[in-house]
Amino acid sequence: MSKKIFLDVHAIQTLPPSNINRDDTGSPKTAQYGGVRRARVSSQSWKRAIREYFNDNSKESNIGIRTKDIVKYVAEKIAEIDESIDKENAFKIAEETLNKAGIKTAKGKARALFFLADTQAKELAKAAIEDIKDKKILQEILKKNPAIDIALFGRMVADDPSLNEDASCQVAHAISTHSIQNEFDFFTAVDDLSPEDNAGAGMLGTVEFNSSTLYRYANIAVHEFLKQLNNDKELTTNATKLFIEAFSNSLPTGKVNTFANQTLPQFLLITLRKDRPVNLVSAFEKPIKSNEGYVNMSINKLVNEIINVEKFTDSPLITMYVSLEDILNYEEIGEEKANLKELLESFSKELLKLLEEY
Q: Are residues 277 and 223 in the same domain?
């Protein structure tokens, strides 16, 4: 395919006191941008949440598993296919087959996390039962029919780079549109069975947190995603639609029981471009300052930025958005949809139409 299609997904989402993504000291992750400290949620954290959303909400069964227990996973598939093979032998032939494919193991586990599609695991299990030892055949199984999350987020295999899968999706670290200061919650826990004359706490400690309005961004090279999914235009359209839904509705779960920070975006904007993907974080290089909330100002700065970047880029093929706030210049950016469901339905029709023309 000589033509290109890039999907950009942008969101403004506010979080109350929370700590959804911690660093090695337990503090909420932060970053310096525009000369001030911002709240930050790593791309790895949100990609994990998106993959969990795929597992919970996808009718598409070919979702990837990332694990060191790849031998056990394939062995389970072997046992499902042929019940006459006991667990010990299933494990043995699974490990032999994976080793022949170039995946090194030690003590029954892969040396590093390995990303494997459900369909690939089943095909490897069949190959193990049929005693196929040809490395080329086994590696071909690992290369074809990748799970949608493997195609989106890629796979790296240090032991055998030929098994690498390039990612068709990029996810940015979410950052706050304004400066933040981390705060501390001092907590105590009472021992229910402590003696009556013991007035002290059974446990005490601190939890660090912050509040923020985040700008979130991701893109997909749809033309590459289509190739990875064997040029299946309907599957590519449905998988891209699922990604947008997951991007909107997923949330990292760090300390969620402590803070119950179950929020959704206040603004979601998607574009399809033919020239290149565009991250609009430059809208917030100058941090927003406000005593009356950040959401409305963040949305309007984002809308202005999408208009401004057209001084350097081609106009998007399609722009659609859902907003919970009033928007200035709304008539200049694209089609407003009443809700996420309507946006996804309209987007799917438009994307499939574009793919059919390629």
A: yes
Confidence bin at 1 (pLDDT 50/70/90) = very low
6, with CB counted inside 10 A (0-12, 13-18, 19+), is buried
- Range of 81's domain? 65-146
Rounded Cα distance between 213 and 249, Å, is 16
Q: 320 with 335: CB under 8 angstroms? A: yes
| 97 and 115 inside one domain | yes
Is residue 190 assigned to a domain?
Answer: no
List, for residues 238-276, the tens digit of each pLDDT value: 999 999 999 999 999 999 999 999 999 999 999 999 999
Q: How many domains does the chain have?
A: 2
Whether 333 contacts 306, CB under 8 Å: yes
Residues 16 and 135 in one domain: no
